[in-house]
Design a protein that fits this description.
It is a single chain. The chain is an alpha+beta fold and 188 residues long. The protein contains two helices and nine strands. It has a domain of 103 residues. Helices cover 31% and strands 36% of the residues. A hairpin with a 5-residue loop joins strand 3 and strand 4. The longest helix has 55 residues.
Length: 188
């Protein structure tokens, strides 16, 4: 071999093939990284939705079970008003487009953070809701105590709540959705 053939560089075709292989490897790595990030965000969304659903179920369950009676109109499917044995009044309201809130009005001075009578606290429990509905049921004494639709607020014994909330990844299409249905019995 001559000294010239040992020091010979790469041909244009070899350089193009090496660049194409490098670009293909980088593109594959980038695609994997983006997909892992999306999957991580989706899992985070599911976890957040599940956490908020559980928190809302806990708060609603406690409030509804403590309610002595329902004071709202039964024709409303997005709001329920209740009063408990302490005289406190509270309601849950879905705004029809996105949020479900809880408003609680204290009737007497309480030890809860020095809350005074007449003080109202409002808390947003759910966000990004696509739907929310309430059903009011009463015991039918003539039908083996089965639950049927309540005809007046005074005979409501069970409240069924359903909702669906969703979150999206980076403003894109919805990928995480949680649907919940629960039934709560008034202990009055």
């Amino acid at each position: 071999m001559s000294p010239q053939s040992k020091s010979r560089g790469m041909t244009l075709v070899e350089v193009m093939v090496a660049m194409a292989a490098g670009i293909l490897i980088l593109a594959s790595f980038l695609a994997i990284t983006v997909n892992v990030a999306k999957s991580f965000k989706a899992v985070t969304n599911y976890r957040y939705i599940s956490k908020m659903d559980r928190y809302t179920l806990d708060i609603m369950g406690r409030d509804i079970r403590m309610a002595t009676h329902v004071t709202s109109s039964l024709s409303l499917t997005n709001r329920v008003d209740m009063t408990n044995s302490f005289g406190d009044s509270y309601f849950y309201l879905w705004d029809g487009s996105n949020n479900m809130t809880r408003s609680y009005t204290y009737s007497t001075n309480t030890s809860v953070a020095g809350t005074l009578a007449g003080t109202t606290t409002t808390t947003t429990l759910l966000t990004n809701c696509n739907s929310f509905s309430l059903s009011f049921l009463a015991r039918d004494l003539n039908n083996n105590l089965a639950f049927t639709n309540a005809v007046s607020a005074s005979n409501v014994k069970l409240i069924q709540v359903s909702w669906s909330c969703a979150r999206s990844i980076w403003g894109g299409s919805t990928n995480s959705e949680g649907e919940r249905t629960a039934q709560f019995t008034l202990r009055n």
